[in-house]
Amino acid sequence: MYYKSTRDSSVKITSAEAIVQGISKDGGLFVPSEIPSVSMDEIVKLGDMSYPERAAFIFSKYLTDFTDAEIRYCTDNAYTSKNFATENIAEISHLFDGTYILELWHGPTCAFKDMALQILPYLLTTSAKKINIDKKIVILVATSGDTGKAALEGFADVPGTQIMVFYPEDGVSPMQKRQMTTQDGENVAVCALKGNFDDCQTGVKQIFGSKEIAEKLEANKLMFSSANSINWGRLAPQIIYYISAYATLVKDEEIKAGDKINIVVPTGNFGNILAAYYAKNMGLPVNKLICASNTNKVLTDFINTGIYDRNRDFVTTISPSMDILISSNLERLLYIMCGQDDAQIKEWFGALSKTGRYEVTDEIKAKLKADFAAGFCTDEETKAEIKRIYDKYSYTLDTHSAVAVKVYEDYKAETGDATKTVIASTASPYKFSASVLEAIEGEKSSLDEYAMIDKLNELSGYEIPASLAALKTKPVRFSDVISKEEQKDYVLKELGL
Ligand SMILES: *Cc1c(COP(=O)(O)O)cnc(C)c1O
After folding, report:
1. pTM to 2 decimals?
2. Calpha distance 369→367 (Å, rounded)
3. For the segment 409-436, what is each residue's pLDDT rounded down to a tens digit?
4. Ligand 1: distance of its center to the CA of 433 in Å?
5. Residue of 113, 130, 383, 387 marked catalytic
């Protein structure tokens, strides 16, 4: 299997090359030239395997240039009970009849990003070795909160790599900020940017694309790569847990092999739900992919109208990891849907960067409607949903997962669709204690972050993640705050260039 660029279909590279490069030189994203298939027999067999074995099986279909031993090296080192608080890696909780919560947050940083970022450093260093790269790989990350910490945790002290993380100064939760600014490791740097997530991401993309910087890197045996979900090495690991969840539900006799399910995903950059779309197109029986947004509902509007329009106010919400107006991975979806028409993608995404808007064809609108449903909810609705689920089912949702549950409830009420449904739960409630406590108690808590964690422990009964409890006594290592204009110089300074 080869990988193409969404902006140049003639690009033909291996998965190792795609993972090392991160993003194509033409500004496009790498996608597999075709989507491999998985049969129902194969899915059923996964039910008897461990998570690393399931992962290795799915990876073997995408990373066809890797040997089995290379893939197993990656999966067996990443998906261990040393890194994850549950042996199942991704846990399934039964919320109510026919509705399952896929808990993707049992990793070291308590958000679903760990599912991919625990394995990405292994995929990346293995890829670099395979294609004889002898440069140090510099990872630049733009984060709305969770990616940054998960990437730092994954890459800290990984030989041959260096990592720099940019987060919006006022756009992350206190706990997310503390997780990042206290990060250990000799090869890490963390910096706040005066701006929002889109500013961070745009800046990183510009630095990636700068010829001047590229030449300096080349002269110093350095190269950039990305740990954002524009990197295929981030996307591929996310396909696995949807197929794995289905295999578990069949094994547990919750569904019969071949039954369709719905998948609901709280969405920001469109990476997680795109992985579910890949799973569906591999052969996983999926009825609807339900895209859940917060008040930054650019995707709800897009799926419902075919018009993508980012010309609107950016709103800071209690689900900050979904506060995004430019969802990068949509480019991959549209590339597939328009039959790999790179000229069409260039036209739409050119318009997006010029005018902030594009409109897809009627054919694509129909395809979007066939595969997806979409909805959004406000902060008030999110809090009410946390409270309702807590009172009724004694289950404590974080703010992002609550958006998904609420949008799903609305979808069900509107359509009457009774298909069994898997809802992706993307963060531990402890990561957003202040908002979750406020939702359950009905008023803002006056406790400090750590007392809030104790209080949430009392209310939920869930074990406190050791990594969060430990933050209280960890010293802050990184306190730089810069403007957008200073981002490039910051990177050069950190690299000693
Ligand atoms: C990143 C993140 C999301 C959004 O996922 P995308 O792949 O960017 O759509 C949702 N919830 C949480 C908690 C996240 O960290």
Report:
1. 0.95
2. 5
3. 999 999 999 999 999 999 999 999 999 9
4. 17
5. 113
